[in-house]
Structure formats: structure tokens, C-alpha cells
Amino acid sequence: MPPDPLRNLDPAQSVKILPRHLAGPGLTDPRTAWPFPFDEGWTLHQSENGVAFAVSPCLRLWTHLHPEPGTSGPGTWTIAANRVPFGPRTWQITFDATTPVELLHGVHAELLDLYLEDLHSDRNHLFGDMTPAAYEAYAPLVAQGWGHSVKTDGTQTFNCWDGLAGVRHRYASTGSDVPEWMAWGGYLSEPLWQARFSTGTPTALVAAFTASLISTEPVHRAVTDIPSQFRRQLYLTTPVPKPAPSTPPAGPPPAPGAGRIR
Predict the structure, then answer these.
(1) What is the pLDDT of residue 85?
(2) Which residues are CB-contacts of 159 (< 8 A; sequence separation ≥ 6)?
């Protein structure tokens, strides 16, 4: 069994680690997850209990953080789109609040890019008219060495090489409320976090998520915020300074110089 790379570190020390799916949520702050230009028509609403909303100028996109302090649930991040303002949801994405914030930021950054591209063109990426094929979301997983299995129930699953993350794609519609895409970190039976993408979610958003999930750019975490159960599977990329050598005791002062003999 590999040693715990964080064992001898100060709990308050900030380190850079991989893989991302085992890093813990990081700073659960809407302004970290949401790259929206709030000085350009996007609105931000925050309450004292941690609930936060961001809404697009067209009122057709919104994203929401709903923490659940004092309960067994971690809380939820939600992204949703409506074809008309305040209408029924066309598609929805949910993340456990324990999802690494870098994955959230990647999806929200792509959401903003699609919104701006639709705004300045006659395209409609956000509502399926220009969505790329599903393989654009899962091909990078296969290229990174993730395992791939297909079942006759209409699902295919991609499992990380360490067995501690996965992405499941429902390629055959069942007409149910089962998400088209689901991802998790840790063991599926007791995950650190889960993400769910409903039918109709633009594939570009799923692709942004999987790209961030497998990114080899380390993430910053305080040691105390990193989940303890999988620390032996982490790679520490921050050089840990070696203890400074002890300073030898000072020697006796030099003897005074002898006087000149006349």
C-alpha cells in the first residue's frame, strides 16, 4: 500500500495534488465556480445562509447553490435552461456540493461561452440545435486510458484507471427521468460526489466537465480539506521543503593577536 503523502504536513498547509476527482471540493464559493460578467447584465443573489443564484440577462439560464448545513446531505449546485423565461426546464445539471470546484468552473465557463456565441450569432447551442456528438464528451476518457464497458440496457460506462471515478452515458432513451450522463468520484456505492446531466443537456457542457475531470493540471487544497479515505491514492505535486539543517554551535572567539616585539 502506498504511503500517505500528506501524513507529515501541517493541516493548514496548501498543496497541489492530483487526481482531481479525489481532491475534495475546495473553496465552495459561487464567485470561484461562476465566471459570469456580473457587471454586464448577469445578476447575482446571495443570502446569509449561503444560498446563491446567478441569472443570465435573457432570463433563460440560471445556476444555483443550495447548501444544506446541519443535514446529512452535502448540498447541491444546479444549472438549468428554459426556452422561454420562467418556463419549464429544458435541461438541467446537478452537482453535489462536494464536487471539486474546478469541475464546476469548467462547466460554467463553457456555459458562458455557449451563451455568448448564441448571443452574437444565429446559432442555438444551448437548446440542442448545434450540439456535438456524444463521443466528444467521452473520447478523451478513452484516450486517457479509462476502461469502457457497454451493457444491453442502453448504458455505457467509463471507469478511471484507479477505479475511483466513473462516467456513465445512457445512449438509448428510456423515456424515464434517468440522467443521460452521470459521473462520480470515489466508489459508486459511497461516492465522494456525483454529477448528473439530464437529457437535452448540450454535449459541449458534458465535454467541458470530462476535460476538467481528467486534466493533469494540479489543484490547490489545504491539507485539512482533502478527503482522508483516499489520500494514499493522491499525488503530491508541491515540493515539500526539507527541514533546514541544524546550525552548529558557535566556536570560541578567536584569541587576541600577539603584540609586536620591538
Answers:
(1) 92
(2) 146, 147, 149, 165, 166
